[in-house]
Amino acid sequence: MKPLELSPEDFRALAADVLALSVEYLSTLDARPVFPRTSGVETERLFAQGAPEHGMGNRAFDALPEVFAHSRVQNGRFFGYVQGSGDPVAALGDLVASVLNQNITAWRSSPAGVTIERTVVRWLAEAVGCHGFSGTLTGGGSAANLMGLAMARESRTPTNDRGIHSAGAGVIYASEQVHMAMPKAVALLGIGRENLHYVPCDDSYRMFRQHWSGLYAGMRHKDEGQWPWSLRPAR
Ligand SMILES: Cc1ncc(COP(=O)(O)O)c(C=O)c1O
Known about the structure:
This protein is mainly alpha-helical. The protein has nine helices and three strands, in the order H-H-H-H-H-H-E-H-E-H-H-E. It has a three-stranded parallel β-sheet with strand order 2-1-3, sandwiched between helices. The model has no long low-confidence stretch (mean pLDDT 88). It binds pyridoxal-5'-phosphate.
């Protein structure tokens, strides 16, 4: 057998081990400390060895209990960010997605996957009152912000074909509380972080109305030869 191949029996046995660890983790989630008792030295010792010269086979999974033990726990006492605990149904879905390993570029590449994505996007659009809208799912918030900003820019000043230099300068308005993904996306799109204007917020983190009024913003920057491309609320 080739070194990277896994027999059906080994796959079944390893999957059972992973499942057992996952069930143990999820069923003790609430009792676990939010942050593992560990240190950088400890995690370097455990996880920063050199790349193995030879295939490890099933032993590649030996470190998995330590991975669980040295991960941050998203339970009801975790208030850090928006991240929740892993959803068991979604985790099984991730397994299937990896087993199928589809390419979602076009219907012919994945008839089921593409149709499911379109359907879920339609559901989400309908849930926020955007009937008939289409879109794609992204792997995270940074990619979503990048894509959203690119579309906002394209709708105001088409540059996809002729490049950003063919367009007039544009500005993005964002809450001063906006996620750091926004300045990153602005830089990646070549808009320039100096064209990202932060709108001050009140004590409840709401943008001050007089600052975010589209008319006010548009007129102010129109005078300076700039057009507002997008307005982004906090988070
Ligand atoms: C509004 C917003 N944008 C972007 C991100 C970044 O998301 P990701 O780490 O998935 O790229 C987050 C993550 O919390 C977010 O809340």
